[in-house]
Amino acid sequence: MNSNPSLIRRFFSGTWRVIDTSRKLVINLIFILVIIAIIGIITSDDTQVKVPDGAALVLNLSGDLVEQKVAVDPMDALFNEALGQKEERPEVLLSNVLDTIAEAKADERIKIIVLKLDQLSRGSLSKLQDIGKALTDFKTSGKQVIALGDAYSQGQYYLASYADEIWLDPKGFLLLDGFGRYQMYYKSALEKLAVKPHIFRVGTYKSAVEPFLRDDMSEAAKAANQLWLNDLWQAYKEDVAAQRGFETANFDEDFSSLLTKFNQANGSYAEYAMQNQWVDALKTRDEMTSELISRVGKSDNGEYFNHIGYKAYLKATKPPFPLEANGGDKVAVVVAKGTILNGHQPAGTIGGDSTAKLLKRARYDKHIKAVVLRVDSPGGSAYASEIIRQEVELLKQAGKPVVASMGSVAASGGYWISASADKIVASPTTITGSIGIFGMFMTLENTLGNLGIHTDGVGTTEFAGFGITRPLSDGMSQLFQLSINRGYDDFISLVADSRAMTKQQVDKVAQGRVWSGSKALELGLVDELGSLDKAVTIAAELAKLEAYEQVVVEKELSPQDLFWQNLIDSSAHVAAKLGFANGYTYQSPAPLAHLGQAQQLVQTIVTELKQLEQFNDPQGIYSFCLTCEVN
């Protein structure tokens, strides 16, 4: 039997088109129905968030504390919220937490704040200090703060120390192990893979590239890191001791004292915490709930105490859409958070072009009289950093004072973009400095050679055909190093001109060395210590403003973006109504469990390598602080 191949192809092609069209139609119909259902639920009266009278506001923060959230796809965020699915790396916006605490202070419906911090992941000390100050201010209203938990990490306990009472489960966990900086080193691995790293740097302490040159931390890096880690640890101890009413000596820093006390506590972490006066009471979950019921009454369902969760309270008190600013004088805040990369970048990462564009908007806005550049960055592209710094200079030329407000970290490129500001304000625990430059790339000629792959050819110059498949010539090495030397000279010259110092004075405190904010003040690298609020006040004073409004300059959202943003915010409450999520649950972080640690290790390696891979400086020159992260 003969068959016509063309006819068969047309048949199957037509059949597939029908199936594919039907598939898309079904998916689109389901999508439309889901959206209609969500909008219908959101707009119904019985789903509006209501704050119960005499309630406890539960600060059940979940995720990393950040200055600016990383941009996510609106549809992914919507369905994650609607279906109660957890984000891979949830984030908590610091400004939202501070606003929530301030709102609760004046809210007669809120009787107490309950800190439930089991799901709070990473939060730098400077951000925790800001929340601690907000909690202290909250208590001036006469309202109490209670901290409760199955366990406390070191960061979680810092916030808990601001509570009037700290409760811990009798089988719970609390151990304060100090700060450290430990990282992985890849020299031997690169040798086994026959990968040849080419490193060009200036700065005795510029250790960002050490993981690719060594199998351990250099003595110079150890000395520098130990200094700023000690500063942060001392600040941590002083703050906690002040809140708890004991001496800073009440922190065990060697195994001898730790084991002695742990033996006396019969091997119980909870009893050890009680003996050290770190907590006020050991209570089971049921006992905690019963005690809170006695203070604020029962919830509507009778299962818990009368409460409202953080996200629900934020939705109930925060306008769904940004309010229009009035036409008066303004102090603008521009947030520069994340790694500095070239070009336009989404929120959560600093783009040379996109961040400069925000500063330019502030420059041309006639109502904006001063600008605060809020920096939370370990640096990145030297070129992108310079593009941003030039906009700072243009703002000053336009008669608008600029104040750099350093958050958790403002090092390397983060310091570069801050240097030209009229004033630099840092937190005492800001990680800053790291004034240095490096360039790095890998060549794979040996790796490929082991696989039997070789590169050869001809060119019209000695440097034609440069690439990762060929060895790096001496001439190219000298060329790159000269460029790095010039970059470092530009950096220290910039700092010298901006800080009224000589290049020699800057060089002594530069060389890639990292400092705490308090030490940077002593060295003349910053002008004052304080928070973002203080930086805004200074900016207003420089602009001679008596009355002003504080505004945030960020990427403008389209009407569609605003719609999706409101829908996403609302869907969290919808999910709770549908039973997908609960506003208040007990969740243990299982601090001693080792499940998933291998996965975390792999993720750490991938993150570190991906961080370097995304660098896109057009000249391959970077001012980046890889060590500016506390373990």
Automatic annotation (TrEMBL):
Q: Which intervals hold domain Peptidase S49?
A: 138-292, 396-545
**Where is this chain's protein located in or outside the cell?**
Membrane
Span of the signal peptide: none
Which CDD domains does the record associate with it?
Answer: S49_SppA_67K_type, S49_Sppa_N_C
Similarity annotation: Belongs to the peptidase S49 family.
Checking PANTHER family in the record gives: PEPTIDASE S49 DOMAIN-CONTAINING PROTEIN, PROTEASE 4
The protein's name in its UniProt record: Signal peptide peptidase SppA
Q: Which organism is it from?
A: Thalassotalea euphylliae
Report which gene this protein is encoded by: sppA
